[in-house]
Recover the amino acids of this structure.
């Protein structure tokens, strides 16, 4: 029995885009718990970005409910953060400017230390590698000392070794901070070891569970066949998921 407390609960949530009259999400029920890493995967158009916005409280469901624990602090790491290339900006200054109020030097140092970026504190953000930049964005999310970290495609643009190191870092942070973590990804290739639960999303939840279970699910493999990617294969226990319908993956962004 899972003893972790729920941070966010979605119950029978649906969302319709009123501009296009398109039902983006339907009948979503899930629980985001403290000290757990939840990975949301799915093709373009599956509703991943919309689901993240619902979790963050940026939009509201058309039907259903989203409940957050009282005084929940959320740290958000976006896919990208646009910085004017002509603006001289150090890592330290970026983190200072990312907060609405003055932030103590000690808090910035603590965040950078957690992501192993202290040596580059005074480095120009324009000279950072892809992996270094992602760690700076993660430090930025940590400044709120969050109960929940929400990361949208956090390792995008990072090489294979850098991705593996990044996800190991997330596992370490989860253990240190006892925070919940929600990841959005296209696949499980590099998040397997760091993930406790997986949600396969394609407008609704096709399947969910531990990665060892999901990896054998027909719906998971169907997603990859539609996107022409190769699903990850592991030597794990066989699992059969019974699903009586198929999904057409819409090839456009959420």
């Amino acid at each position: 029995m899972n003893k972790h407390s729920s941070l966010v609960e979605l119950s029978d949530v649906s969302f319709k885009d009123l501009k296009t009259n398109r039902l983006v999400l339907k009948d979503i029920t899930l629980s985001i718990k403290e000290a757990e890493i939840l990975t949301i995967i799915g093709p373009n158009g599956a509703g991943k970005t919309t689901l993240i916005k619902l979790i963050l409280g940026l939009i509201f469901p058309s039907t259903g409910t989203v409940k957050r624990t009282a005084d929940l602090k959320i740290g958000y790491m976006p896919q990208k953060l646009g910085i004017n290339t002509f603006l001289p900006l150090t890592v330290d200054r970026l983190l200072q400017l990312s907060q609405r109020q003055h932030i103590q030097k000690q808090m910035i140092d603590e965040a950078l230390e957690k992501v192993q970026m202290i040596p580059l504190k005074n480095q120009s953000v324009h000279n950072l590698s892809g992996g270094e930049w992602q760690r700076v964005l993660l430090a930025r999310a940590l400044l709120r000392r969050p109960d929940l970290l929400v990361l949208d495609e956090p390792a995008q643009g990072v090489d294979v070794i850098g991705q593996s190191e990044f996800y190991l870092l997330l596992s370490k942070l989860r253990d240190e901070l006892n925070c919940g973590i929600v990841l959005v990804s296209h696949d499980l290739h590099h998040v397997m070891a760091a993930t406790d639960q997986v949600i396969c999303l394609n407008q609704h939840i096709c399947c969910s569970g531990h990665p060892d279970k999901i990896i054998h699910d027909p719906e998971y493999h169907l997603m990859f066949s539609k996107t022409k990617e190769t699903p990850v294969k592991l030597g794990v226990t066989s699992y059969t998921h019974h699903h009586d319908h198929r999904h057409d993956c819409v090839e456009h962004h959420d």
Remarks:
- The mean pLDDT is 85.
